[in-house]
Automatic annotation (TrEMBL):
<dbReference type="InterPro" id="IPR016032">
    <property type="entry name" value="Sig_transdc_resp-reg_C-effctor"/>
</dbReference>
<keyword id="KW-0597">Phosphoprotein</keyword>
<dbReference type="InterPro" id="IPR001867">
    <property type="entry name" value="OmpR/PhoB-type_DNA-bd"/>
</dbReference>
<dbReference type="Pfam" id="PF00486">
    <property type="entry name" value="Trans_reg_C"/>
</dbReference>
<feature type="domain" description="OmpR/PhoB-type">
    <location>
        <begin position="125"/>
        <end position="223"/>
    </location>
</feature>
<keyword id="KW-0805">Transcription regulation</keyword>
<protein>
    <submittedName>
        <fullName>Response regulator transcription factor</fullName>
    </submittedName>
</protein>
<feature type="domain" description="Response regulatory">
    <location>
        <begin position="2"/>
        <end position="116"/>
    </location>
</feature>
<feature type="DNA-binding region" description="OmpR/PhoB-type">
    <location>
        <begin position="125"/>
        <end position="223"/>
    </location>
</feature>
<keyword id="KW-0238">DNA-binding</keyword>
<dbReference type="InterPro" id="IPR001789">
    <property type="entry name" value="Sig_transdc_resp-reg_receiver"/>
</dbReference>
<feature type="modified residue" description="4-aspartylphosphate">
    <location>
        <position position="51"/>
    </location>
</feature>
<dbReference type="InterPro" id="IPR011006">
    <property type="entry name" value="CheY-like_superfamily"/>
</dbReference>
<keyword id="KW-0804">Transcription</keyword>
<dbReference type="InterPro" id="IPR039420">
    <property type="entry name" value="WalR-like"/>
</dbReference>
<dbReference type="InterPro" id="IPR036388">
    <property type="entry name" value="WH-like_DNA-bd_sf"/>
</dbReference>
<keyword id="KW-0902">Two-component regulatory system</keyword>
Length: 224
């Protein structure tokens, strides 16, 4: 996934650059609105993380210029403006998500992953595979070696979240938001119980669920 960060705060921009690079994303960055707009229009980015208060060309101008083209690049706005009308305006002008400053990097990562999944659906990538396990996003089914595994709605959401971020460790906060939304919280015990239940179901079919617990950090879906 190729990401462009357009943010005039150098400490924040550098922090995001390092964090996203460490997670395996390809990241470009700019602290200037004019330069950022040129980069956005001249390269094919999957996601633009966009501040609104920028020198030369503000974030809303960049967003409107981008949406006047055929580009399908997703845009995540970062802003200190937290009023509902600011968020509504940004979304109505074509942003895909809106995150209010200050924010945790873990929440930003969760939103990046959510936008990534949205892109997968739009491009008709309707299955997620890790090892011998396949999640069908259209049929909402989960299979091990073409054998159906009967899972609950929450179990499905947990697997979708982890399979979408294959080989990346996700913490409780990110998984919880994918399952119950940002206004509720899935407990650690509940998450462990859901994953344990799916693990048992896959073992009954002679397999192993390719999800591992990285103690102190979270869970990762991996073939290794």
């Amino acid at each position: 996934m190729k990401i462009l960060i357009i943010e005039d705060s150098e400490p924040l921009r550098r922090s995001l650059l390092v964090g996203l690079n460490n997670l395996g994303f390809t990241v470009d960055e700019s602290g200037d609105g004019s330069e950022g707009l040129s980069m956005a229009l001249s390269s094919d980015y999957d996601l633009i993380i966009l501040d609104l208060m920028l020198p030369n060309v503000d974030g809303m101008g960049i967003l409107q210029a981008l949406r006047s083209t055929p580009s399908q690049t997703r845009v995540l706005i970062l802003s200190a403006r937290s009023e509902a009308h600011d968020k509504i305006n940004g979304l109505m002008k074509g942003a895909d998500d809106y995150l209010t400053k200050p924010f945790s990097f873990e929440e930003l990562h969760a939103r990046v992953l959510a936008l990534s999944r949205r892109g997968q659906l739009q491009s008709q990538q309707n299955t997620l595979r890790v090892g011998d396990c396949v999640l069908d996003l259209s049929l909402k089914t989960f299979n091990y070696q073409q054998q159906s595994v009967n899972i609950t709605r929450n179990e499905y959401k947990i697997i979708e979240c982890l399979f979408s971020a294959k080989d990346r460790v996700l913490g409780l906060e990110m998984i919880s938001e994918a399952v119950v939304g940002q206004f509720d919280m899935l407990s650690k015990n509940a998450l462990e119980a859901h994953i344990s239940a799916v693990r048992k179901k896959v073992r009954l079919l002679g397999g192993e669920l390719p999800i591992k617990n990285k103690r102190g950090f979270g869970y990762v879906a991996s073939e290794n």
